[in-house]
Amino acid sequence: MDTPSVEIQIKTLPNSPGVYQYFDKNDKILYVGKAKNLKKRVSSYFNKKHDSHRIEVMVKKIVTIKHIVVNSETDALLLENNLIKKYQPRFNVMLKDDKTYPWICIKNERFPRVFPTRRIIKDGSEYYGPFTSFKTVNTLLELIKGLYKLRTCNYDLSEEKIQDGKYKVCLEYHLGNCKGPCEGYQLETEYTKNIEHIRQIVKGNFKDSLQQFREQMKLHAENMEFEEAQQIKEKIDVLEKYQSKSTVVNPKINNVDVFSIVSDEGYGYVNFLQLSHGSIIRSHTIEMKKKLDESDRDLLELGVIEIRQRFNSTSKEIFVPFSINAGEEVKVTVPKLGDKKAIVDLSLRNAKYFRQERFKQMKIVDPDRHVNRLMAQMKKDLRLSVEPRHIECFDNSNIQGTNPVAACVVFKNGKPSKKDYRKFNIKTVEGPDDFASMEEVVFRRYRRLLMEEQPLPQLIIIDGGKGQLSSAVKALNDLGLRGKIAIIGIAKRLEELFYPGDSIPLYLDKRSESLKIIQQLRNEAHRFGITFHRNKRSSAALGTELESIAGIGEKTAVELLKHFRSVKRIKTVEKKELVEIIGNAKATIIYNHYHS
User: Where is each UVR domain found (predicted)?
Assistant: First the structure.
């Protein structure tokens, strides 16, 4: 499928947080931006006049829009920063410098220091973050400093140098901010234990710390120290909003390719995320046509080879959702939990969004392919022998047995065919009997189609459970159509699908397109039947008063109501107006009835 127009690309964008990238006709990146809602943000570039000449020029150059879906606005902010630093897009003015978001570093050394930094140095130190706000970093470090006495000096505290007495305690020790490991006043085991607690705090596990803060806040409030209480409350708010870390970045995941796949009857969609120094630097999804009945494993193995060749990837490790054969030189990892699993889930999410967008674009650009795929999917999901190109759905409507009616709606190629809709007055059934009513309308519908030699549907759907389904099957039996047309029932409560002679229902995935088509049919039949039922009930109620006049029947009452719209107006019109509609004799009866 060729690249669709920009308008179609915008129509099919998701309403999710993420990062969008604009490319020109030469596939050169123009701009990277973040969005809380991708569809709204990208649309805003094309539906208004821009004050900035730079933006106006950029919009004219845009040919392709790519995006990466992420879990939150914070993730989008961080990913935008990574991509701008990597690709230096021409129309991005901000964030091109070498500055980046802050991290908290636990230094790789004896008696580790804990401090904020904007630079990641590969020396084995631990980096937590990145953080979108220095306020969060400072609050965390202040919390750590209040709970644990850590050194701030940059001395090399090796065991030999401490034993040789090379260092003397500084002012921080005398102020009570440090326990003096430089002179051996603090044991390494105790210090290491504190560092482990700090790791938990930075990861977001600070339940005990929050409890201490709340107690301090109450104490200040009781002592009328409201300013101090407010300061602690602000710290609590920051910590409660703090997310332990982002799936977009983890420095421990270095130089890795991430792949995932989703597929349908005809195509597989393989997503690729490239990670460098823990940051996503590329996202790409390819569409692969199934030549035979290939499994997801087969398609993913082919997709991995194609994508790695296309982007000249040299990474020695790949993350995938299930084990595949990627050659002897590549390590294949199937993550089960943690950040590695989260990054595979993110890749899978992007593959799913790409598939949805392709469907939407296909619907607009190539509707035949969309219909063919949908029909093939329904045939497989519903275990049919042929594709259900023509489907009919039946629904009964009555209230306490009054004015019983039924509706039949028709879908052709997955879309409503309203000219073929039919409504039925129940003729042979007395009282509220849904089963007998269903049998009557199904019999009448297909007896007529057979008599008129009209094409029969490939699938009949009955709105109701086993009882209504059995009644409809009996009607098909009487007509000799049993086995010639597939028939199923759908129960409202749990969306169960029943097949004749099978007591165990079929449950389709709630997100399946096949179930959505069936639900749409059921809802349309219900709407059509209810509308017909209400109209009939209203006509009956209005007609009752006129029909109570001696000499006036149902036909005359309907004629008058069609013309004058209400009984109230009929009471007030001149006699000559009534004569024009129903003739002199009946007009005289009605006029005299209301004016005697």
Answer: 207-242
Which residue from 254, 23, 42, 244 is spatially nearest to 129, judged by alpha carbons? 244
Q: What is the pLDDT of residue 400?
A: 46
CB of 83 closer than 8 Å to CB of 100: no
Q: Distance between CA 132 and CA 146 in Å, rounded?
A: 23
Dihedral over Cα of 462, 464, 466, 467: its sign? negative
Q: Sheet containing 114-117: give its strands across.
A: 114-117, 103-106, 126-128
One-letter identity of residue 94: M
CB 19 within 8 A of CB 79: yes
Q: Show the tokens assigned to 318.
A: 């790949």
pLDDT at residue 259 in the model: 92
What per-residue confidence (pLDDT) applies to 260?
Answer: 92
CA nearest 103: which of 205, 237, 252? 252
Give the tens place of pLDDT for each residue, 216-227.
889 989 988 888
Note the pLDDT of residue 244: 47
**What are the backbone dihedrals phi and psi of residue 485, each rounded to the nearest 5 degrees, phi first?**
-125, 130
The CA distance from 457 to 198, in Å, is: 68
* Residue (of 322, 366, 329) closest to 347 by Cα position: 322
Strands in 366-458 per DSSP E: 390-399, 402-412, 415-416, 422-425
Tokens at residue 511, please?
């997100």
Give the tokens for residue 301: 């193995």
Q: Which of 146, 150, 46, 130 is CA-nearest to residue 85?
A: 130
Listed residue (407, 411, 422) closest to 388, CA to CA: 411
Alpha carbons 269 and 398: distance in angstroms, whole number: 47
| β-bridge pairing 64-69 and 18-23 | antiparallel
- Please tell me whether residue 423 adopts helix, strand or coil conformation: strand
Read off the tokens for 470.
Answer: 């059995």
For 37-46, letters b (16+ CB in 10 Å) and e give: ebbebbeebe
Torsion of CA 373, 379, 380, 384, to 10 degrees: -170
The pTM of the full predicted model, rounded to 2 decimals, is 0.52
Half-sphere exposure at residue 478, Cβ-oriented, CA atoms within 13 angstroms: 15
| E strand or H helix that includes residue 530 | helix 513-547
In angstroms, the CA 473 to CA 477 distance is 6
Distance CA 232, CA 217 (A): 6
**Of 50, 67, 57, residue with least CA distance to 9:** 67
For residues 373 and 266, the answer to whether their CB atoms sit within 8 Å is: yes
Buried b vs exposed e over 528-553: b needs ≥16 C-beta within 10 Å?
Answer: bbeebbeebbebeebbeebbebeebe
